[in-house]
């Protein structure tokens, strides 16, 4: 109760201070240009308002900034949609300079077994936080524990969190970030307010990329831009990394073309994907092996090819639904085997043989 | 006196013989003084390492060629000691974490983190970052790859990582999205022939075109093997004859013979003999994946289409199992046994049809 009242009282000061902070942040970013930072970091949203597309989350965060209480959060959604960015931006706005002391960020590269949850998280959570900053300005009286990539935590470690989350709710908020909500145990999900992050629309990605292009003085043709948006699949981080890699490779001032983007993104060119289906139409094993051999020598990523084949097959007009389902079944098996480390050559041959067999029937 | 493979290895990006556009791109990137993490992938013998060394030389100058070998001792959390060998110069470190088996995560965490954390002592040196080359990145366990992903982001100011892999299907997407992928495809036949000819010119030898072509075909896109074949031919017989025999590896012949035995007779006794032959191959360090591929290629040769699809399906199934289990011989043998069963049934059916 005490906590609620306190946060409530702080609201006015907090809100106004954060808006001023906002401005200083966003203007400060464009000025300093450390050449070594990746663009993904450089153009990470600095305030909650900069986060695109995810309206309901932004709404909630904005209310928190204006003094409403922050619930425990669970963000889930595909990679590159701004989950980590949102919580980091919100934390920065909430706490300002003392943000380092108030945040505990753990991700998959840190040791995160049950032991760490018991010791590190618990002891961090137990400290109470003051509602005034060292410089006398008010700030919310809690700390935030960010568990990034929470779906790679063991169920035992998640179970250890349950009681901690409740008991320390006076001083600590938890924010879990993950790709698959199904891998979080139900007791945790029921303690958090869940937010789904949608994949970004292609228009938004294009807008963002164009902004970066003009900031960094990169010339990027229309077809290259289209290719970037297509290959990203709604993942803004991937699109930006790809753009940066392209511009680095080509050197400053040289226009980026669609094939550069394809090469950097590791996409298998369309003629190879169609070639695979075409070879299978011939019902000839020797031609298939020859094709697979050539593909292996070119060094293309077979897992990627399988994914692209799936796209093509689903939208193919010449196949019956039964054929499609048989092939897609095999595609799934192949993809699974390759993830486990299965040999690409044999996997691809197997796939080819299945396609040949289904085409005949 | 070194092998021709090493002697004629190009040592600058401008001297590379093929994929010149890519070399130019890499050179561009280095000249801007900064580059992202790299993931270099392609089939073996396509020149991945060569390209990396050219890149490093371009970056740091000839200092990278002064290499030293170091043995390091790392202790796992379970108190097991791991020895790992690294090759390093003042500017870079080359390590193969998969030598440590499933303890590779510890190697990544300890070794690479310590390298990445230390700054370059001499700030007037050319670059403020070091390079860590990780070989066989596709053999890293999932744990190790996850451990790498944060290290890559955190220490990006002091350290660049170059991952070398044969295939990126096994590299997790999180790593792939953090690296700039550089695909090094195998050289085609004409390119190999040109390189063989130029090696011979530099050695002062004359190489008939037919022989060069046959070597190129037999090397199967693997340039290193092609040059090694060439040198073997030179030792066997010089001056070269156009119809000279190109010696292939012993184990390849052995594997082919094994496959022939399987096709000739299908019985439990034969299976026992095959088992000892497979063991023989594995004792000599031939990876099970290559045995599998070789067997499959030979076995399907005299089957009809329907049989082929069946066999390939079985092969994919058992080959996948090798990676899940720990004893490859069991799965290899299972494949041979199931091939025998399919083949025998097919033969009996055709014989029955005849009468």
TrEMBL record, chain A:
Annotated signal peptide: none
- State the compartments where it is located: Nucleus
Q: Which GO terms describe its molecular function?
A: ATP binding; ATP hydrolysis activity; DNA binding; DNA clamp loader activity
Record-annotated AAA+ ATPase domain positions: 69-203
- Its principal location? nucleus
GO BP: DNA repair; DNA replication checkpoint signaling; DNA strand elongation involved in DNA replication
InterPro entries reported in the protein's UniProt record: AAA+_ATPase, ATPase_AAA_core, DNA_pol3_clamp-load_cplx_C, DNA_Rep/Repair_Clamp_Loader, P-loop_NTPase, Rep_factorC_C, RFC_lid
Q: Which GO cellular component terms, listed alphabetically, does the Swiss-Prot or TrEMBL entry include? A: DNA replication factor C complex; Elg1 RFC-like complex; nucleus
Keywords, in A-Z order: ATP-binding, DNA replication, DNA-binding, Nucleotide-binding, Nucleus
| Region annotated Disordered, chain positions | 1-34
Stored Gene3D superfamilies: 1.10.8.60, 1.20.272.10, P-loop containing nucleotide triphosphate hydrolases
Q: Which SMART domains match?
A: AAA (SM00382)
Mind telling me which CDD domains this protein's record contains? AAA, HLD_clamp_RFC
Query: Is Ribosomal protein one of the keywords UniProt gives this record?
Result: no
Family, per entry: Belongs to the activator 1 small subunits family.
Q: Which PANTHER family match?
A: REPLICATION FACTOR C / DNA POLYMERASE III GAMMA-TAU SUBUNIT, REPLICATION FACTOR C SUBUNIT 4
Q: Identify this protein by name.
A: Replication factor C subunit 2
Name the source organism. Answer: Cryptotermes secundus
Provide the taxonomic classification.
Eukaryota, Metazoa, Ecdysozoa, Arthropoda, Hexapoda
Gene of origin?
Rfc4
Automatic annotation (TrEMBL), chain B:
Q: Does the keyword Ion transport apply?
A: no
Q: Name one GO cellular component term.
A: nucleus
One GO molecular function term of this record is: DNA clamp loader activity
* Compartments in which it is found: Nucleus
User: Would you kindly state one Gene Ontology biological process term found in this protein's UniProt entry?
Assistant: DNA repair
* Record-linked Pfam families: DNA_pol3_delta2, RCF1-5-like_lid, RFC_C
Its keywords, alphabetically, are: DNA replication, Nucleus
What's the domain of life for this entry? Eukaryota
Which function does this protein serve?
Subunit of the replication factor C (RFC) complex which acts during elongation of primed DNA templates by DNA polymerases delta and epsilon, and is necessary for ATP-dependent loading of proliferating cell nuclear antigen (PCNA) onto primed DNA.
Q: Which family does it belong to?
A: Belongs to the activator 1 small subunits family.
Quaternary structure per UniProt?
Subunit of the RFC complex, an heteropentameric complex consisting of a large subunit RFC1 and four small subunits RFC2, RFC3, RFC4 and RFC5; the RFC complex interacts with PCNA. Forms an heterotetrameric complex with RFC2, RFC4 and RFC5; this complex has ATPase activity but is not stimulated by PCNA. The heterotetramer of subunits RFC2, RFC3, RFC4 and RFC5 interacts with RAD17. Interacts with CNTD1; this interaction facilitates crossover formation.
| Name by which UniProt lists this protein | Replication factor C subunit 3
| Organism of derivation | Cryptotermes secundus
